Amino acid sequence: MSELLSELNWSLLLTLLIVSAVVAWFGDIIGMKVGKKRITIFNLRPKYTTRLISVLTGVGIAFATLFVSATASESVRTAIFNMKYVKNQILNLTAELKTNRDNLSAMEYQLFQNQGELQQKRDKLTAVEMELAQGTAKLDSANKKLEDLEKTREQLEKARDKAAAEQKQLSSELAELKTNVKSLRGEADKLKANVRRLREDRIAAFSGEILAQGVVEDAKLLTDDKIDGLLLMLKEQCREMLAQRFGQNSPVIPEPEISEESAKQLRKDLKNSKGRQLVRLAAVSNAVYGEPVVTEASLYNSKQIYKKGELLSKIKFSGTETRSEIDTKIYNALRSVNQKAVNDGILRDPISGNVGSVESAELSNASKRIKEEQKPCTLEMRTNRDIYTEGPVTITLSVK
Taking the CB of residue 237, how many other CB atoms lie within 10 A of it? Predict the structure, then answer.
């Protein structure tokens, strides 16, 4: 109720009351004056004239009320003068409202459908995102595999280039091998011919065999004439050794030959050397009796390796060994001495590989004495002279 009273237009009501009171008051005054003066209008009796004035006053009150209401309120003015228009407008608005409600219902239905479709599309989008994530993972894996394949390709290319280079080198080596094979076949034919000759004749010298050697105490003092004399002396020494080998006189043996290249190199090396030097003549190839032996000269620095009486090996025996065990120990010790001498700088014999020799009688006597001792003893191997690089190593055996 309070809300209804608060919404009333009190100013308009107050205005209407005031206007109606003023109009009624003026109408009453006019009616009283007309009644007192007995004025007539339109030849009417005063009583009717008063009534007419009352009626006109009421009409004035109504018009005044309408005028004030219309002037003060737009809604009243519209309701009085434009009611039909308003009614038509209300009808149109009602129809439009209904249309809008129908459209709204259709739009709500469409929105519902669209929401369903949107959910489906969201589901599809989620599935597509999952597929995209899987595809991205596969793509990353494929990229990694591609990088691995690229690295493998680079490695294969490097391997191919290396293989091509190796193939080129192998082709070159193959050509060289073919040349060597051809040369070796020629040498093999030559060797076969030499073998046939060796079967028919006696061997004068083996390939690489030392046929002569000489020592120069101070190479710095050598002149060209002395070098020539040295080479001539070595050739004669070689000739004498071959003569002794076949039990012939030296003049019967053909003079050995020294290859020009090795002789030239020997002269050059001797001129550039100083101190004690060793010169050796070795057979270049196998030679048979009756033909000149071709030799090759070589130069070595010669120095003292062992002094006379120097201990080379000491072997202890318990006195319980058999003769065979004693011989084995002595033989093994001699092999050790041979290897030690080589390591110390003694030159090997190219044919036998040894650096010296021991008389078999001396070995037999030492073994026999050790066996006869029947108690612990020691076998010492000592040098019996000063030994230089050229050797040979000669030793004495003593049992203690």
Answer: 16
Q: Is 215 exposed, middle or buried (0-12, 13-18, 19+ CB in 10 A)?
A: middle
- Residues 28, 34, 40, CA angle at the centre, nearest 5°? 135
Contacts of 295 (CB under 8 A, 6+ apart): 211, 212, 238, 256, 257, 258, 259, 281, 282, 283, 284
Reported as a single tens digit per residue, the pLDDT across 180-239 is 777 777 776 666 655 555 444 466 677 777 878 888 888 888 888 888 888 888 888 888
Whole-Å CA distances, 271 to 229, 235, 268 = 15, 20, 5
Query: What does DSSP assign to residue 356?
Result: B
Q: Give the span between the Cα atoms of 382 and 394, in whole angstroms.
A: 8
| 8 A C-beta contact, residue 203 and residue 178 | no
Residue 296: strand, helix, or coil: strand
β-pairing, 294-301 vs 257-258, is parallel
Nearest to 379 by CA among 394, 359, 398: 398
Helix 46-72 and helix 10-37, axial crossing angle in degrees, nearest 10: 160
d(CA 333, CA 330): 5
Give the integer Cα–Cα distance in Å for 306 and 388. Answer: 7
**Residues near 224 by beta carbon (within 8 Å), at least 6 away in sequence:** 267
Q: For 211-225, what is each residue's pLDDT tens digit?
A: 788 888 888 888 888
Query: Looking up tokens 């071959």, which residue turns up?
Result: 242
Spatial separation of the C-alpha atoms in residues 396 and 400, rounded to whole Å = 13
pLDDT at 287 over 50: yes
- CA 158 to each of CA 33, 144, 148, 151, 168: distance values in angstroms, whole numbers, following the listed order: 138, 21, 15, 10, 15
Q: Name the one residue in this structure whose structure tokens are 């030492």.
A: 366
- H or E element, residue 394: none
The Cα–Cα gap between 335 and 332 comes to 5
Q: How many CA atoms lie within 13 A of 126 on its CB side?
A: 6
